[in-house]
Amino acid sequence: MPETILEARHINKSFHDPVTVQVLHDITFSVNKGEFVSVIGKSGCGKSTLLYILSTMDTDYNGELLIDQEVMTGRKDVELAAIRNEKIGFVFQFHYLLNEFTVLRNVMLPGLRLARYSAQEVEHRAMERLKMLGIDHLADKAAYRVSGGEKQRVAIARALINDPHIIMGDEPTGNLDMRNSEMVFEIFKELAEVHNQTLLIVTHDPGFAERSGRIIEMEDGRIIRM
Amino acid sequence: MKGKLIFGIAKSLLLARWRQTLVAAVGVTFSIAMFITLLSFMNGLNDLLDGLILNRTPHVRLYNEIKPNKNQPVNAALKDSYNFISSVKAGITRQEIYNSGPVLQTVKNDPRVLGVTPRLSTQVFFNEGTIDITGLINGIDVEQEMRLFNFGDYVTAGSAMDAENVANSIILGKGLAEILVADVGDVVQVTTAQGERFSLKVVGYFQSGIQEYDKVQCYASIATTQKLLGKPANYVTDIQVKLYDLDMAPAVAKEYAKVFNVDAEDIQTANAQFDTGSSIRTLISYAVGVTLLIVAGFGIFNILNMMIYEKMDSIAILKATGFSGGDVNRIFLVIALSIGFFGGAVGLVFGFIFSVIIDNIPFNTAALPTIKTYPINYSPIFYMIGGTFALITTYFAGYFPARKASRVDPVEIIRGK
């Protein structure tokens, strides 16, 4: 019996502005440890909305969400922030690096927030991850001075800093050219296969999805294939 | 650890926008500097004006007021009836303080009393040709007056001690001396209320800074004045008391009035209008200072608001990667408070420098003989109030933007891209 990392039970969500539209209908699925899951579907089918609910950032939904077999639904903002910090790594379409900091410091920030290790150790771990992604030579550069593909790899390093249970991605290759997309995919694949890292990636690149371990396809707020 | 991280992030955000930060901090610096300068100058001026009167006024003055006796014999005789008495005269009241020697000694031994000096004053006429000019001669113990009431500061020509040392001498008010055309060393003719004529030698000028006062007041030693009046050596009309603590004056006055059976007036009652004037001036300067600070606060508020709009992405990712609303709130509060702290600290230094500059600007006026430069009060209380206010205003200026930042919904920002 593989260990369940993420479980969604009967999740429903509606937007109320300007009129009430139900965007997610009774979403139920689970993700096991080490799985590389892609969520695909057409624009507006609710896959990003689902991802933000799963990420605990959006708390306005009905149903139940479990991460690491713990119920997330109804928890306080501070607790959820701590859980995101410790258990979830994020890679977005846009890199969201802090321009005020160096690449290394950007990667270190969530680690410093968690404070499980000392500052020196966090730095060491950040360097390890940068090395693994082949961008350790950029460590001391200001975040806004590196290229788009490199930025996305920095963002992946940042997602990995706290050894999260799951990495969530919202179109992480959406803004990248073929070569960089390929590189990011290879990194994810390696993470899943070599490091047994759980990944849940929203994408509308069918090529990307097909090569991942498992595909969840959505249409009109429902899961039609999983 | 967490605090250090929050400070680190706040510092980076501040330095990334150092020009805006500088503008905000300069706003605080300017207002604090002006606040300090304004209050120091205003209070210096207040002290000066108060000093004009209060330093020379005894804290408690003992005297005998000329007034009809309250206990008229007819009231004692016919207790049950209401007696109408008209034209009551202050018949046997004397201006002299009874038993002045022992009273002086007793007051002197009171531990609350800094010093005590007798005084007697009398109306005289100065004879200038055919014209008689009214004057008031104050007989004083020159040495004690110099110690307690800075008498020496106001003698602008000649020497104060000569009034004591030279027999039949007088120190004329500056205005009176000009009317009499009397130089130091000249002799003036005086007629007392009793009709006696005396010649007194002018040994100095007295200038209080209040012109009306200087046209009338003169000073002589007690002995000289007693001679003018033809009274014995224990004849004094006033006893002036200076206390260690000015605020105790009303209580002490009441006590002495009862113990010595004299009239006693405290400084607060005698000079109520000066207190009012000072407190209103102080109030105005505080109001102006606080207004300046609030304006600076709005500056900080604007700059933080702008910063938050600019940094929406950063706030969103901080929240996505595990910083709670409270952490974000703290980051922006730290930013606001550091602007307040550093701006305020520099402001205090500048306030002090401005005060020193004002303190060194020459200010010569005939009315104020002891003042050579503009007055400044360097009370550390202004600096404490200024510093505290800088922090409080910047805290409130940062509070609302910080709260807004803490409520940023990362989903909205990230999905918006």
In a nutshell, what does this entry contain?
Chain A has 226 residues and is α/β, with parallel strands linked by helices. Chain A has helices spanning 47-54, 77-87, 103-114, 119-132, 148-160, 178-194, 206-211; strands spanning 4-15, 21-32, 36-41, 62-67, 70-71, 88-91, 166-170, 198-202, 214-219, 222-225. In chain B, helix 2 (18-55) runs antiparallel to helix 15, helix 12 (272-310) packs parallel to helix 15 (380-406) and helix 14 (325-359) packs antiparallel against helix 15.
Q: Total number of helical segments of chain A?
A: 7
| Distance, first to last CA of chain B | 33 Å
The interface involving the most residues is between: A-B, 31 and 28 residues
Strand order of the largest sheet of chain A: 6-7-8-3-9-10
Extract low-pLDDT stretches of chain B. Answer: none
Number of helices of chain B: 16
% residues in beta strands of chain B = 15-25%
Along the chain, the helix and strand elements of chain A come as: EEEHEEHEHHHEHEHEE
Rg from alpha-carbon coordinates of chain B: 33 Å
Number of domains of chain B: 2
Report the structural category of chain B: alpha+beta
Largest sheet of chain B: 6 strands, mixed, barrel
Q: Helices and strands of chain A: which structural class?
A: alpha/beta
Termini separation of chain A: 19 Å
Query: What would you call the quaternary organization?
Result: heterodimer
The CATH architecture category of chain A equals: 3-Layer(aba) Sandwich
Helix content bin of chain B: 55-70%
Family (chain A): Belongs to the ABC transporter superfamily. Macrolide exporter (TC 3.A.1.122) family.
Keywords (chain A): ATP-binding, Nucleotide-binding, Translocase, Transport
Domain ABC transporter (chain A): 6-226
GO molecular function, one term (chain A): ATP binding
